[in-house]
Specification:
The structure is a single chain. The protein has helices spanning 2-13, 17-21, 31-53, 66-78, 91-94, 100-125, 141-169, and strands spanning 131-133, 137-139. 65% of the residues lie in helices and 3% in strands. Helix 1 (2-13) runs antiparallel to helix 6, helix 3 (31-53) runs parallel beside helix 6 and helix 4 packs parallel to helix 7. It is mainly α. The chain has 7 helices and 2 strands, in the order ααααααββα. The protein has a two-stranded antiparallel ribbon with strand order 1-2. It is globular. The two termini are 29 Å apart. The model has no long low-confidence stretch (mean pLDDT 95).
Length: 173
């Protein structure tokens, strides 16, 4: 997950601010918007975990059915089915993407917070359905990380396609 984030940020750090914010077409996000979407997804996931685990008696125990949500997400990515992002991470609703430097700083800090929080809480709540995905439902922290890895891989491909599309239209850049 971290390697994928670093690859994304490496590419975004190598392009101009104009390319970072340029949408390949009016109906598509820019590379910066996609990266901001990933950051917001992680930020909101950590906020949800913090809130949910502050009421430990209300966190449901593990259920093998939670794997069905992971399978559903994998099928969505496999068959390129598009799911509308929740409003809080939908870049059409959120507005302008943070500039690259600000995103890099905030995402690096957030990732460290996420790692620290999961390392601290996993021994206690690892067998609990601490996370609730808007499409796939309740899942463990381990399953949440599987989703996050798949999510970042999916959008990493999207960023690469946008980059290629922009290079085709502006080969000198």
């Amino acid at each position: 997950m971290e390697a994928k984030k670093q690859e994304i940020m490496g590419l975004l750090g190598s392009i101009s601010p104009e390319q970072y914010h340029q949408q390949p077409d009016p109906a598509s996000w820019s590379m910066g918007q996609v990266a901001n979407h990933l950051y917001l997804s992680e930020r909101n996931s950590l906020a949800y975990l913090r809130k949910k685990l502050s009421y430990p008696d209300l966190v449901p125990g593990y259920s093998p059915k939670s794997w069905l949500g992971i399978v559903a997400i994998k099928l969505v990515y496999l068959f390129h089915y598009k799911i509308k992002a929740p409003e809080s991470i939908n870049m059409w609703k959120v507005g302008i993407a943070m500039p690259y430097e600000e995103l890099k700083l905030k995402w690096d800090e957030l990732r460290q917070e996420l790692i620290s929080f999961i390392e601290q809480q996993e021994p206690i709540f690892g067998r609990h359905l601490a996370f609730n995905h808007p499409f796939a439902g309740r899942m463990t922290m381990h399953q949440m990380l599987i989703f996050m890895n798949d999510h970042i891989r999916h959008h990493q491909g999207q960023i690469m396609r946008i980059h290629q599309k922009l290079k085709m239209h502006h080969p000198a850049q």
